[in-house]
Amino acid sequence: xxxxxxxxxxxxxxxxxxxxxxxxxxxxxxxxxxYHHGExxxxxxIINMAQTFVGSNNVNVLVPSGQFGTRLQGxxxxxxxxxxxxxxxxLTRGIFNEFDDPLLKYLDDDGQTIEPEWYMPILPTVLINxxxxxxxxxxxxxxxxxxxxIVENLKRMMVHEVMEPMHPWYRGFKGxxxxxxxxxxxxxYCISGILGKVDDxxxxxxxxxxxxxxxxxxxxxxxxxxxxxxxxxxxxxxxxEYHTDTSVHFEITMSEKSMxxxxxxxxxxxxxxxxxxxISNMHLxxxxxxxxxxxxxxxxxxxxxxxxxGYYDKRKDYMVGDLERQLSVLDNKCRFIKEVIAGTLKIxxxxxxxxxxxxxxxxxxxxxxxxxxxxxxxIQSVEQEAQQEVDDEEAKTxxxxxxxxxxxxxxxLTLERVNTLxxxxxxxxxx
Length: 431
Known about the structure:
Blueprint: H1 2-14, E1 20-21, H2 22-32, H3 39-50, E2 62-65, E3 85-88, H4 92-95, E4 106-109, E5 112-116, H5 125-128, E6 131-135, E7 138-142, H6 147-158, E8 176-181, E9 187-192, E10 194-199, E11 202-207, H7 214-224, E12 238-241, E13 250-253, H8 256-265, H9 267-270, E14 274-278, E15 282-285, E16 291-294, H10 297-342, H11 352-361, H12 382-397, H13 403-406, H14 415-430
Antiparallel strand pairs: 1-3, 2-3, 4-5, 6-7, 8-9, 9-14, 10-11, 11-13, 12-13, 15-16
Helix pairs in contact: 1-2, 2-3, 10-14
C-alpha cells in the first residue's frame, strides 16, 4: 500500500493519460514522491497494479500495454519494465475523485510535499483487489470481493438497512467458491477448479483454483509421471495442453486402475484442485494509524462507510467555499474594471502599495496566493531570483493578495470584458 500511494500520487500529479514506459514512470515516482530505495521495487509495484489476469486485480488502476504477465506463471512472466507501457485507467479518477485531493493530509519529506497519509477512494480498494503481505510483527491476507456487492452494501447502509454477507470473488474465475463454517463459527472458503471426466481413462481440467498457476500445476503433473527409476508405475500416462495465456485446459490420461484409485480419494483432492481460503488474518491500519484485526469484510466496509461519509461533508464544504471564492473574484473584477473606466479608481502612475491601500479601503476582497517554493535542483536566473525575493516580500505584507486584479491585462479594462464577466457570473452561479 505504501508503494501504491506513491505511484498513484505521481500518476495524478503528472495527469498520466498518455502511455509512458514503466521504467520511466518508476523514475518519475521516485523523484516526485521522495522514494529513497531501488526503483526495481517501484517498477514491480507498477506492473502489479496494471495486471488483469485471473487472481490479480478485480479493478486495475493502471492500464497494461505490453506483456504484464499472465496466469501461466502468475505474473512472473512479465516483460522488462523498459519494454512495457502504462497509463491511468479511466476508472481510476472515478474511484479516487479529484475533489477529495485538497482534503487529504499530505506528507512532507525534507521540505518536499509528497503523497498523502492515505487516499480516500469512494470504494474500499483493499476489498476490491485484496491485500497480502507481511510487516514487522504482523501479516495480512484480505481476499478480493465483487465491487458490485460492495456498492450494493454501501447503498443499504445509506438507507439504514442490514448488509448482505459478502463472499470472495475474482474477475474471470470460472470455478466455485464455497462457504464453510466450523462448529466454532469460524468462516472459511473452499476454492475449487473445474474437472470433468471424459471416460474411464481420461479427465479434463479447465480451471485451476485461484492462486495456482498453469506452469506450477504442470510441474505437479510431472510428479505424477515419475516412476522412481522403474520401481513403481506412474500414476498418469500423460497429459496434453490446450490452454492459452488466459484460459486453462489440461487433458490427462491414465489407466482404469489409477482412475478408480483417484475416485476413491476424490478426483479434486487427488489432483489438488481445491484450496482453503481463510479470512481469519485480515489485519489493516485504521484511520488512527493503528493495526486492527477485522473479522469480516462487512466490518471493514462499516468502518470505511463512516469515514467516507465524513469526507463527503468535507468535500461539499470545500466545493461550496471554492465556488464562493470564484464568485467573489468575478464580482470584484467587474467592480474594479467599472471603477477604473469611470475614473473613480486611479491606478496609473501610482505606487503599488498606495493602490493596494486604496483597494483595502474600498472593501475589495483579498485573495492570498500560495508562494511557489523553489524545487531542489531547479536552476534560476539572477532575474528570477530577484523577482522571487520581491514576491516573497510582497506576500509577507499582503500586497500580492490583490494581484488577481492588478495583473489583469490592459485589454480587460473595457466594457465588453465587464459584460463577459457578468454573463459568466450569471451562467455559473445564478442560472
